Amino acid sequence: MDDLFTLPDGFLWGASTSAHQTEGGNTRSDWWAFEHSGLTDRIEEPSGSACDSYHRWPEDMDLLAGLGFTDYRFSIEWARIEPSPGEFSAEALAHYRRMVEGARERGLRPMITLHHFTAPLWFTERGGWAAAESDELFARYVEAAAPVFAEGVDHVCTINEPNMVAVMATGLRTVAAGGSLPAVGLPSPDEATTEGLVRAHRRAVDSVKSCAPHVRTGWSVANQICRPEPGCEERAATYQRPRETVFLEAARGDDWLGVQAYTRTRIDASGPLPVPEDAERTLSGWEYDPQALGAALRHTAATVAGTPLIVTENGIATADDDRRIAYTSGALAGLAHAVADGVDVRGYFHWSALDNYEWGSYRPTFGLIAVDRHSFVRTPKPSAAWLGAVGRTRVLPTAAAS
User: Fold this and answer.
1) Model's pTM, two decimal places?
2) Angle at the Cα of 393 (from 151 to 19), degrees rounded to 5?
3) Kind and range of the H or E run holding 113
4) What integer pLDDT is reported at residue 266 of this predicted model?
5) Which end of the chain is less crowded, N or C, counting CB atoms within 10 A of the terminal residue's CB?
6) What is the spatial distance between Cα 164 and Cα 51, in angstroms, rounded to a whole number?
7) Is residue 401 domain-resident?
8) Sign of CA dihedral 359, 27, 76, 166
9) What CATH number is given to the structural domain containing 348?
């Protein structure tokens, strides 16, 4: 393979954010309530004003467009649009429509995520995704949100990381009952939540298509990238299937499938292994592993053959921006090799555009753009200029930075 790889025409090149993590003041959501519940010491601080992107989104988009990105993935907040059952906020719908139009005016193609971990508190109090009518309620919200995405949007992600939503359902139930979570690895996903999410995704795809047939729909999965020790392949598959595989298989027939990769999970006969003592760790505690993205793309392509892939999240929590560039360089090299080998990848979105609220703490900084916690001043990091320049040239290195 040559030392450089040119991206195909139309390749999506962007960064991602989510509403709750950047907007602030999402008081009608289940996560806002959880942050203030006192149920767990894993919540170091509540989200508060986050990055104040509900008001400062034009500045965020100006920066991304100026840096060279052509695409921006952001979510719309169900709890703002439907704060009470069946009551829809014209103000919230108009706000998110302005964001779509603002992105287009700046030359950014918006990818809209309809659900990124947070739901209205009333929905969760009714039983959340495990409730029998959850798919109907989600479809009602999607249809109400159609004015946001019906024009000027080419890609809609129905649900972000549904496998993690199902895992969190188990985790939240365990914490509420006074239990403890596994020290290593993920809890088993809640089965009723898994089934509800799959139903909701299918209903949402139908709703989007009925309102806007041109929109390409999919959902994004948190890839586990299980790496078994010799002879432990079956144990790894047993761990991986409920936590990832069933969600990949649910995407068969979709227009695209989102790949979200950060690190690996080592598996031996006993199950997931802790990160080795001598391994480099990120601020999220994960093992530094740029090769995870290439492995995730190849595994996903093999699992759901024929479904186009989009990298909807990939990045690293670090205070060392040189390591961010090195990590992303390695990840993009893996993407380039996968595409050269025939994997159908249609885009790459870095996580994240901004340093934002990481579900309990502001310490893990994933952003290409730093955000001052008090003044909200945005400061692009060198990695932002570097990654934007890669997008402008449309050429990826095929060898990782050291």
Assistant:
1) 0.97
2) 40
3) strand 109-113
4) 97
5) C
6) 24
7) no
8) positive
9) 3.20.20.80
In our burial notation (b when 16+ CB lie closer than 10 A, e otherwise), range 276-301 reads eeeeeebbbebbbbbbbbbbbbbbbb
* Domain annotation covers residue 399: no
Which domain range does residue 250 map to? Answer: 4-394
* Cβ atoms 213, 149 nearer than 8 A: no
Give counts: helices (H), strands (E), the chain.
Answer: 15, 15
Using CA of residue 113, residue 32, residue 42, residue 371, what is the dihedral sign? positive
Please state the φ and ψ torsions of residue 20, each to the nearest 5 degrees: -60, -35
Number of independent structural domains in the chain: 1
Q: Hey, what are 289's tokens?
A: 């592993």
Closest CA to 121 of 35, 41, 63: 35
- For residues 265 and 25, give the distance between their C-alpha atoms in angstroms, rounded to a whole number: 35
The C-alpha torsion from 198 through 356 and 148 to 25, rounded to 10°, is 100
Compute the distance between CA of residue 255 and CA of residue 347 in angstroms, rounded to an integer: 13
Q: Which amino acid is at 187?
A: P
Contact in structure between 248 and 242 (CB atoms under 8 Å): no
Is 131 part of any domain?
Answer: yes
Stated length of the chain: 402
φ, ψ dihedrals at 346, nearest 5°: -105, -5
Q: Which amino acid is at 254?
A: D
**Residue among 23, 37, 198 at smallest CA distance from 125:** 37
What DSSP character marks residue 23? Answer: S
Reported as a single tens digit per residue, the pLDDT across 114-160 is 999 999 999 999 999 999 999 999 999 999 999 999 999 999 999 99
Establish if 402 belongs to a structural domain. no
Q: What is the pLDDT of residue 288?
A: 98
Listed residue (143, 313, 302, 295) closest to 212, CA to CA? 143
